[in-house]
Amino acid sequence: MLIRKKRGNFLEDFRVGQLFRHKVGKTATEGLFNAFTEFGMTTNPLSKNLRYAQRYGFKGLIAPPGLVMNMVFSQSVEDISENARANLEYRDMRFGAPVYIGDTIEVETTIVGVQPSSKEPDRGVVHVQTTGRNQDGAIVLTLQRKVQIWKDNQETKVEATALNEVPAIPCDLQIPAYQESRKYRELAHLTNPDTYFEDFTVGDVFAHSRGRTVTTAHMELTAMLDNTSQVHSNQYLVDQNPAKYIGGQLIVYGGIPFNLCLGLSCPDVGDNSVGDVCYITGRHTGPVFVGDTVFASTEIKDKREYPGRPDLGIVSTILRGHKFVKKGETWEKMEIFYLERDMAVKRRSHYA
Amino acid sequence: MLIRKKRGNFLEDFRVGQLFRHKVGKTATEGLFNAFTEFGMTTNPLSKNLRYAQRYGFKGLIAPPGLVMNMVFSQSVEDISENARANLEYRDMRFGAPVYIGDTIEVETTIVGVQPSSKEPDRGVVHVQTTGRNQDGAIVLTLQRKVQIWKDNQETKVEATALNEVPAIPCDLQIPAYQESRKYRELAHLTNPDTYFEDFTVGDVFAHSRGRTVTTAHMELTAMLDNTSQVHSNQYLVDQNPAKYIGGQLIVYGGIPFNLCLGLSCPDVGDNSVGDVCYITGRHTGPVFVGDTVFASTEIKDKREYPGRPDLGIVSTILRGHKFVKKGETWEKMEIFYLERDMAVKRRSHYA
Amino acid sequence: MLIRKKRGNFLEDFRVGQLFRHKVGKTATEGLFNAFTEFGMTTNPLSKNLRYAQRYGFKGLIAPPGLVMNMVFSQSVEDISENARANLEYRDMRFGAPVYIGDTIEVETTIVGVQPSSKEPDRGVVHVQTTGRNQDGAIVLTLQRKVQIWKDNQETKVEATALNEVPAIPCDLQIPAYQESRKYRELAHLTNPDTYFEDFTVGDVFAHSRGRTVTTAHMELTAMLDNTSQVHSNQYLVDQNPAKYIGGQLIVYGGIPFNLCLGLSCPDVGDNSVGDVCYITGRHTGPVFVGDTVFASTEIKDKREYPGRPDLGIVSTILRGHKFVKKGETWEKMEIFYLERDMAVKRRSHYA
What we know:
Radius of gyration of chain A: 21 Å
Order of helices and strands of chain A: EEEHHHHEEEEEEEHHHEEEEH
Oligomer: homotrimer
Largest interface: B-C, 42 and 47 residues
Distance between the termini of chain A: 69 Å
Structural class of chain A: alpha+beta
Largest sheet of chain A: 13 strands, antiparallel
Helix content of chain A: 10-25%
Strand content of chain A: 25-35%
């Protein structure tokens, strides 16, 4: 008998309240760490310089938020979005315990809501909550997302259903305590002198000056994250139906520009951060292909105190990613990524 | 004096019974591990999830069979097949001790037979036996292969010679003992529920649904394996004589599709395996180039008991790899890889 | 307010005697190690085989000189050469303590001299001295370089200034002592039998037989080294002004062919070396682009005793890299790299 296992779930397969304990799990090896930390070109020494990370009270190098997000999110792809048409929104993504090299992350997802499309009979939106934990059971990341999923059979009737409320998942950024004895100032030269909490002004927009061209390496990087979705890595599939697949190109997995934008922002706003607190909402507003050059900007929206941490402050930002598309003789700017991002930033008064 | 060292051996250089202790050796770093384990997209948690691997009694993550094969095989390339025209067959490839991150593998090869071509005066076949051992002297892999090698000088007469018998190399798959106290069932959600020994039916053929497009990353991956053969990494060489080199393209090292096919089979047949026992025979039946998308299928040929291990069973399979080639308007399926593969698979009765 | 931070320094920003303590630092993970050691295809077991490295008295695998150079040099790019037009010369590059996986390297640079161009008003040359230290404060590498830097504003007058002398940085190659009890001969089969000190003849030129085609992987590798220079990774920037950027192509970071040439030389001259002592002078004499195949040759210039080490000798060489460029129907050889390289090589009398 010829068996072709159906992979992933279609819209009609999801049941509100259903819990997926995703398969496999993932241990963060130094190989994964190097590939993503360096690929994203993060410039925060907490992820690059062991001496610095340990001085700050961490056990080792910490995975930058882009890698933590990718490690957790990707594990949910097979069960949740293998048959997705589009990833619509990330919501309320909150970071918890730091992720170190050697940590093993396992992930669960709860189905929060199912909403068939009112216009198209072949699709609908699934609302999920995904949580990643390390080997000690500590939460490293929790997020919600809305994803547009294909139906397997257009005729199948799917009812709109939802939980009364999204389950409450307690998750706060875990940061080592501030200790004068750590003599942080001795290492202040390892970061920029003008990216402390005091340096940011609400209303400023940083046009991050560097760009990064995407190569076919996206396929190997996506495989490293166990992202099974074929639209990133199966050119033959795309060649069978170019019209369905955006003109015949493999589309780059959104986690790649997500990671790149975070990295590109780092020298201007991120290198004196001790972690990202929360991504309130985020979405991929445009596709990315091989050959595109990704750019980013950060708008400072708000500054406020960090409860219980006089050495830190919270900076609320909007991180936008864009690229340029050739139209005749001119280049048009196209937005590709939007993220409302709260960052925990050091105060110069305490660290420099 | 201008010196251009000749690299590798030609047909007339081999002597039956000759022992090569291959140079350098290789320590499995986390970088190598990440690159190949993730590249192959294996979904077996023994190679991905440290918590799972340790629960199963392994010291750490274990290298998947495709990486073990590559680490051992590649070390023999310079001495044995640097001047090969084609790798004809792998035979009797048997796995032994697990390979962990940090293990150092060194490799030896014995020349078993030399057979000049009866038709072409410029080539012949060399039959070898290659064995890889770790730092404790334990065998991790032993294999035989037949490879078609160029002569350096067509005039040189080469006699057909062979050992009376292939040396016996004892090598059995080393698996931690089954222990009820390990509570395997607690982790059963990390693998598929329908890939246990009991789930396979002789005669079934799994068309593995995913494909994987090969990019220029094959060159970096091949370098990571210390494979010195120039037809994979020297475009200039190929440009000098396109007719000799399959129309002017670099050919992808066979270990790459070997690794990909194993990985592609994993979700359907491999994620509840504790190891591959033996590859009875294998060959690369078609070339792979950048841009090709690799697919695979597994045919279930036989099931039998695993001697001494009532918790496991042996599933004999044929793993086939294929790609599609454009002929005018249609795509033709072309086989690229064939492997008779015996797998040690967990029984649901004991593990789930 | 829209802020676009200016990155790097321009000619008029440098002051003789100025000390830069470069930001971030870098811990050598196994991922970085694998990517560069394997990318360069070094065949020295000190960087590949842990058993061998430890037998020789090293704590672990040692980073090959190409990786040490890259780890140190790249950290100086943002402050020194982000706005460079050309990297003119490396000078007096001396190796010190070995670099192991897990070491953290931090880097400082002193401005030694500033020289405006006598012909072009928009550029000048900066002479610097860069030193990298590990977490114990031991120097791993020190070097000088001359780099041609753009002015930000052509009108700004820049005076020629220089320190009276280049600061003396004591830095000697640190090699474990020779100990008969280590039984080196037992491992002699892991390297070539004809690359010991006694085997080299002054005047010989080795045309290293292998070549290596450069792929788009150069971008990911350059990012792994935190090299921020946009001409390597921002195709959009290049597309805005192809004439300025060598006909519209991204240029490969020089550290890539530097690393490749060292690796290509290894089987013929490097695998019985215990380290590179000094690069007297080096320069990139031609550009490298994706698709180029890199070749190398080594000329033996001198042999002499290694002071205090009767088991070793110093071999002075010139390492040259080249590629071929199609001109009509013929291929023209173009030199791309030149390096005067002193190597510490084992004597057969003591090791084999």
